[in-house]
Design brief:
Pfam families: TetR_C_19, TetR_N. InterPro entries: Homeodomain-like_sf, HTH_TetR. The chain is mostly helical. Helices cover 67% and strands 0% of the residues. The chain is built from twelve helices and no strands. The radius of gyration is 20 Å and the shape is elongated. The chain starts with a helix and ends with a helix. The mean pLDDT is 86.
Amino acid sequence: MPTQTFFNLPKDKQERIIQGAMKEFSQLPFSEVSIAKIIQHADISRGSFYQYFEHKMDLYCYLIRRFKRNYHELMVAKFREHAGDFYAGYLAFSEYYIRAILESPKFGFFEQLYLNMNYQLNKQSIDILFENDKQEKLVDVVSVADLVVDQTEVEDVFEFLHKLLNQTIMEGFWQEWSIEQTNAQFKRQLDWLFDGLKNHSPQDKERE
């Protein structure tokens, strides 16, 4: 997170710094983004930059957080719409999430994020999505009655699913898939997870 010094700045100066950072992170992979270029766009000194942010990753995570801060509430809403059904709720969330990313006016930023995503960036993205303890907890709105996990494992399952979702979006960028193709690929993987890979016999289906 930025320091309090950053938040004490006039709003127009905060926005100038953010826009300077967005310009660089929308054009280059994280590893190639130069702090020198960011401060040049923002018209601040290097010393000032380090008064506002601990390092480049600190700034980058803040940018991600600005876009993702409402997604936790969205997930809660989707699960409520589907009466806590795990599959239906997460599928509805994923469809909205994928469309929001691929239709975002900040498409270049997300393109660089996903095309150059590694373990650290994936984990940061997931941590940001679930970081606000003051928000309503997902475990309180999800039904696990029909699942083989209990309430204590729900957060681990969400982390796994969001890694899978990020991986699918990343593949979508690489393959230049449409929104519909990306949604279809994630749904296929979600179906594998929830239905399993077993070829059920007619007898099995009758017993079910």
